Amino acid sequence: MCGIVGYKGNFINVKVILDTLKLLEYRGYDSAGLAFCSEGNLFVRKSKGKIDNLYEMVDSLQTDLVVAHTRWATHGIPNDINAHPHTSGPLALVHNGIIENYREIKERLKDYDFKSDTDSEVIVHLIHSFYKGNLFDAVLDAVKILKGAFAFVVIDNNTKDLVAVKMESPIVIGLLDSGFLISSDIPSIIKWTRKIISLENGDVFYVHSNEFKIYNFLEQKFVSRNVEIIEWDISVAEKSGYKHFMLKEINEQGKVIRDTLFGRIDEESLKVVLDDKVREFLDSLNIDNIIYIACGTSYHAGLIGSYYSNELAGINSTAFYASEYRYIEKKYFTSKNNTLYIFISQSGETADTLFVARELKQMGENIVTIPNVIGSSMYREFLSFPTRAGIEIGVAATKTFTAQLVNILLLNLYLAQKKGFDVSHVIQELLFIHEVVDGILENYEYIFDIAEKYVDYQHFMYLGRHLMYPVAMEGALKLKEISYIHAEAYAAGEMKHGPIALIDNKMPTLYVLPFNKMINKNISNIQEVKARRGKVLALVDKKSKEFVKDLVDDLLETKYVNEYLQPFVTVIPLQIFAYSVADFKGLNVDQPRNLAKSVTVE
Length: 602
Hints:
- The protein folds into three domains: 3-231, Glutamine Phosphoribosylpyrophosphate, subunit 1, domain 1; 236-442, Rossmann fold (3-Layer(aba) Sandwich), CATH 3.40.50; 443-602, 3-Layer(aba) Sandwich (Rossmann fold).
- Helices cover 34% and strands 25% of the residues.
- The protein contains 20 helices and 26 strands.
- An eight-stranded antiparallel β-sheet has the order 3-2-4-1-10-9-11-15. It has a seven-stranded antiparallel β-sheet with strand order 5-6-7-8-12-13-14. A five-stranded parallel β-sheet has the order 23-22-24-25-26, sandwiched between helices.
- Helix 19 links the parallel strand 25 (536-540) and strand 26 (554-557).
- The protein is globular and about 75 Å long.
């Protein structure tokens, strides 16, 4: 959630570190700050609000040792005092995560003057309480006491040493010719280097005199970590002429589908070809139950996956929020060969999702993960079937959702074929769905005009049936995330069980309505809304349009495709509609308030 940057090396302009920190803005934040050593002094600059506020505070100062931070408030309100870094004597520290026992630690440190309301400040004072001139030793003593999920970087103005620690929250090290660049995430580093070390849980990365070593406090020994060469195209972290990253990423979805499918379907036999390790693992199982576990948008992808599993693969399936499943009592669970858990996470670092995955792994359960970020914790720790969406900068997920759907569908098509089911008709259309998506994206400007009509509404209801119910959920989430309009989605068949009480001329309804066997039931729902003076938008294809065009107020249009591919073509107009409403309201579409791209705390 918070963004961390650290640097130790040759002298550079402090503004270079701020430029690096800005590449982490997409993670979401409410304040920012940095601490740097210059001419023997430790300088601290921090501010509520945007990173841009810091540039004039540092002028053209040079430094060879610095930490910087974007804060997303968890303990203490957003203000200058609670912003990081926090200091204690010659030490300055930035932190991402939550320290669960910070109150007990604060009691232990009664001789220290606490200036902020944060849990993070206890870390730097705790380290200082052990400090006798050796930062590395002091950190090792401190981490024995800390409880929770944390990543932090601390610098010492006396010795000019730097230490970075990872425990649950991510930290990566960029290897420069002139030193070391530390960050929460790879996108901020690849502008400067493609040589990356991903720290593991318990790792303490220590730099002294431009030499580094890694000690793992869980294993209580020095360790080595592989150097990865990152091959991402840096242009994915640029807007390339689009007004916002979100709009750019919406427009990349045809390419994302094509890239994610590449090499995974034999076009002659119309058979799914999975990665060898995933295929061998699935072949070793006798699956009769699939459970999808995820958060946010990824949960909606998992819900769609549960329909695919039940109907295409003939396997009983359901989906859970990771934040709920982690608290289900599991004392009666037994490891069996017949249950498969599929964990989905855009970042591969989602705290609740990782917690459940690790818990079930310890229990011996069968796990496949679908992350987008190569090198993430989820990618490294589990059998992974990654998407190929590339870096997603906009906080509101768009192209990664579509890529997740591709992978989920491929897994289920493979399981269906393994059972002897004929799903070639779905695969045949799937091979060309990227072209259909590209066609939709060639003509969407009309949605801007429709969206402008709905800018001033305070509430919205989304409806859908079958596969379109989780699509409606995703559409509603997008609207509330970036436009701050209260939007809720319901299964259309549940209208009479409560939601219909909300309908009036101040509550528009957006009905996700491609053609399917339930078209007449859907028409009945629309008539119920109209009878209560409700305004209705319908998302239709060419077949369903003929049934409802005279009943609704506005039409969003998509292409007619196989029912199981409808999520790919219906989510795009919903994304554009939400984007357009937010843009008309003059909001920061890429960095909506209070949200983080990577939710690394509970």
